Amino acid sequence: MIQRYIAVIVVSCNILTSCNFSEKPKKDTVPTMTFTVNRQLLGDSLSLADQGFRILIPKNWKPLSESLARELSSKMEAREAASDTNSSIRPQIVSVFSLQNAGASLVISRVRFPKLDSTEILQRLHYTEQTKRRIDSTSLGIAEFMSNGVKITQYMIRTQERVSFKLLFKGRSSGMIQCDYILPTTIFQQEIRAVESSIGSILIQ
Q1: Of 17, 49, 54, 164, which has the most beta carbons under 10 Å away?
Q2: What 3-state DSSP class applies to 18?
Q3: Is the pTM of the predicted complex or chain greater than 0.70?
Q4: Which helix (H) or strand (E) holds 47?
Q5: Could you read off the pLDDT of 41-72 as tens digits, one per residue?
Q6: Residue 92: enclosing H or E segment and its boundaries?
């Protein structure tokens, strides 16, 4: 079970229920999405001071144990070593939170891009192209929106076993941040409001 859990996170990192936009998309503009943030569904917080990033974690989702964190980092490093470092996008895990015995997790990563992706626009385009190559189009939904003044590109990946929300956005400096929410379908309805509240808590200050 633990090995399978680690494998799911590794695959998810390397690649919302539908919410209503607060306004209709206009040409050359990014619509704003408003999330209902229920503080009672949220617990711990995480900050990356150099990026001005702060997020609240779904309630009862706890940091991964040291042993699992080491195993996960080792597997990620092995995948990275086998990739083409000149052209690949490489997430560097910062922290992992999980809901014990439920298979749900939140993985927060810094994302490193090839030197050729020298602008935010190129980075988002490359990320989207890479995701489309790795994920069947029938399982993938892509949306772009503003939340709390943060421009977020969301990739929703739905399979029979789980639903994943992959969020990509820019930090305060030139760095990009990736948040992966992974929800088994068996607990989707139970935890989706907490996930939406967590997404709505994302701030870049």
Answers
A1: 164
A2: coil
A3: yes
A4: strand 42-48
A5: 999 999 999 999 999 999 999 998 776 766 76
A6: strand 90-99
